[in-house]
Amino acid sequence: MERTMDSSQRIVITAVGLTAPNGNSLEQYRANLLACRPHVQMITTRYMGEVPAGVCDFDPLRYQKRKAVRNGTRAGSVAIYCAHEAISRSGIDWAGVDKARVGVYIGITEHGNVETEQEIYNISQFNYDTKMWTHHHNPRTVANNPAGEVTINLGITGPHYTIGAACAAGNAGLIQAVQMLRLGEVDLAIAGGVSESIHTFGIFAAFRSQGALASHCDPNKASRPFDKSRNGIVVSEGGALYMLERLSDAKKRGAPILAEILGYCINSDATDAVLPNPERQAQCMRQAVEKAGLSVDEIDLVSTHATATPMGDVQECAALREVFGKSPRTYFNNTKSYIGHAMGAAGALELAGNLPSFNDGIIHPTINVDELDERCELNNLVINTPKEGVSVSAILNNSFGMLGINSALVVGAFKD
Asked: Distance between CA atoms of 156 and 105, rounded to whole angstroms?
């Protein structure tokens, strides 16, 4: 499709910085996806014992001083690492950038649980004497923390905030950035999603109470979307932040352009706090595609949200069949089978892993599908082996979350 929108309203991706359980750069991450190499491990969680989790191994001291790491948060360190990587990869002259014209928009699932749990545990060792409660607790736990830590670290004086959108948050961060760029509020946006969820025992305990926490003798096989024997979520940490710019500005500085954001939609189920509503999910996808100026049969790849919960996968697949039917052109894949569910970072990380498909024509598969659940059957579902030789021009990125929040983002190969 020819892009007719004014270049000042066209928003492009010029870089991505990420850390995932199976890679600390887009190149490493993508190579492991194509090689079908997952990375989930067993960790010991307070009061819970051993649980499978996706753990990142980036070096926070690459961009922070020890004191800043000690006084800040894990989510902040993830965000700072990803922001620096995105800036470096964008080729921008950061020293010459007007920092008042840079916005930071970071999606999160939850924030503050880790720090609050830790402080309660600490004072429990001192007969709950609140004099032992750290004065760092308030800045660590305010909802804008990860984005705020980025601005302090990088000297950014433009707007910053986090977007609490459950597991739809990675997409929501990008959507907010698109809107702010189109409004002319900022000239550059650092946006996406981050998560520190594995450091709170509460999320593991809650999923176990719901019967939605994955278990398997091999942690690398614990996350198994669409498989008949799937039994729940593998909780993971990670982050992916993008450099977004108006096309006119990116072209002016000769920036590398990875992709263009074409359309998006966020809506609500308004039916249940946990069980997804496939009708609302289908509406969200259709509206995102419509806003992109495309028809559903022009979507080449759908990155599914599927978390490996028994009913969550079934509901999403029902929505996908409703929208795409038996389209011979549209392929489907999933990334959580490699790294688990990175919560607020999930949508941003999953999109990043698929962006190289525009250039290499390869779709990474969903792995750990030993026996496909017939209720999850989709035409052109890529499982266990990469699909090569595919012309990919448009990707639909699905991210859905608790309390019925749905997000869908359409990203296209850049065409001048």
From this structure: 12
Q: Do 380 and 238 share a structural domain? A: no
Domain that holds residue 39: 11-252
Q: Are residues 296 and 201 in the same domain?
A: no
CB atoms within 10 A of CB 96: 6
Examine the residue annotation and report whether 167 is marked as an active-site residue of this protein: yes
Q: Kindly report the CA angle at 9 between 7 and 12, in degrees rounded to 5? A: 75
Q: Report the CATH number that the domain containing residue 93 is assigned in CATH.
A: 3.40.47.10
188 assigned to some structural domain: yes
Q: What is the pTM of this model?
A: 0.96
- Spell out the per-residue pLDDT of the chain, length 416, in tens: 445 677 789 999 999 999 999 999 999 999 999 999 999 999 999 999 999 999 999 999 999 999 999 999 999 999 999 999 999 999 999 999 999 999 999 999 988 999 999 999 999 999 999 999 999 999 999 999 999 999 999 999 999 999 999 999 999 999 999 999 999 999 999 999 999 999 999 999 999 999 999 999 999 999 999 999 999 999 999 999 999 999 999 999 999 999 999 999 999 999 999 999 999 999 999 999 999 999 999 999 999 999 999 999 999 999 999 999 988 999 999 999 999 999 999 999 999 999 999 999 999 999 999 999 999 999 999 999 999 999 999 999 999 999 999 999 999 999 98
Q: Give the DSSP letter of residue 330.
A: -
242 shares its domain with 296: no
Identify the active-site residue in 167, 265, 317, 376.
Answer: 167
Residue 224 CB partners (closer than 8 Å, separation 6+): 214, 216, 230, 308, 337, 368, 369, 370
**Could you tell me where the DSSP H helices lie in 325-415?**
336-339, 346-354, 357-360
188 and 294 fall within a common domain: no
The verdict on whether 137 is a catalytic residue reads no
The residues facing 264 across adjacent strands are 409
Backbone angles phi, psi at 236, to 5 degrees: -135, 160
* CA neighbor of 332 nearest in space, from 361, 300, 360, 362: 300
Residues in the chain: 416
| Interatomic CA distance for residues 55 and 319, integer angstroms | 31
Q: Which residue of the set 84, 199, 341, 364 is catalytic?
A: 341
Is the distance from CB of 239 to CB of 349 less than 8 angstroms?
A: yes
Q: Which one of the listed residues 56, 305, 317, 376 is annotated catalytic?
A: 305
